[in-house]
Specification:
CATH architecture: Alpha-Beta Barrel
Shape: globular
Helix content: 25-40%
Largest sheet: 8 strands, parallel, barrel
Radius of gyration: 17 Å
CATH superfamily: Aldolase class I
Structural class: alpha/beta
Low-confidence stretches: 148-154
Order of helices and strands: EHEHEHEHEHEEHEEEH
CATH topology: TIM Barrel
Number of domains: 1
Number of helices: 7
């Protein structure tokens, strides 16, 4: 299973990532307290370990701007968090060979399945527009079995009943309100990957120990 730490905007964040070694990191180009400019992102990208893929996060951005970042090697994947529809994704693909992640606001099971054939390479299941630090109702993906005690490796064999992720054609990242206390429950749904932002922060900035622990928790599950 993959893990993505999103919202890096300081040089020390890159250092923390290079120690923790998540699979992906996210640079937010949309309006946000974590927003980075293309110039800043390029500088951060230079210091990033070759084993970590940088993802650009956008909201209703003109395709030409995204294509330039892909062409210049600043980002290796594109994450869309706005009202981008399948025709937009198709047009983006004509300009970029970069894999596309489409964020989905989950309010029902149908909200998930409706995007399964959007043309995106991955879906990112989130609460609302994303960046809220809260999770959507995970029961919409499947009902967790009862029992098993506290979160821990002994829960690795438990599976949610009716897990919708098992029937989707498009691999999914799970996001929203995931931190050191909820990540192992999130892993029970067997998403393609976990996406963490505020859960890897203290006081609004990335926390080295939290980043390291989150990556370790994913790796130790062996999934």
């Amino acid at each position: 299973m993959k893990i993505k730490i999103c919202g890096l905007f300081r040089e020390e964040d890159i250092g923390f990532a290079n120690e923790a070694m998540p699979d992906y990191v996210g640079f937010v180009f949309a309006e946000s307290r974590r927003q980075v400019s293309p110039v800043k992102a390029a500088k951060l990208r230079e210091g990033l370990s070759a084993g970590i893929l940088p993802v650009g996060v956008f909201v209703n951005t003109p395709i030409s701007g995204i294509a330039a970042l892909c062409r210049d090697g600043v980002i290796a994947l594109v994450q869309l968090h706005g009202a981008e529809d399948p025709p937009y994704i198709a047009a983006l693909r004509e300009r970029c060979a970069t894999p596309v992640i489409k964020a989905v606001s989950v309010w029902s099971r149908d909200a998930i399945t409706a995007w399964d054939r959007s043309g995106a390479d991955f879906l990112l299941l989130d609460n609302g527009p994303g960046g809220t630090g809260t999770r959507f109702n995970w029961d919409l993906m499947g009902t967790l079995e009862t029992g098993g005690g506290a979160d821990g490796p002994e829960r690795a064999d438990r599976r949610p009943i009716g897990n919708i992720l098992e029937n989707l054609k498009t691999p999914c990242f799970l996001a929203g309100g995931i931190d050191r206390y909820t990540i192992e429950t999130a892993l029970l749904f067997r998403p393609y990957g976990i996406d963490v932002s505020s859960g890897a922060e203290t006081g609004g900035v990335k926390d080295r120990e939290k980043m390291t622990e989150l990556v370790w928790r994913v790796r130790r599950m062996g999934v």
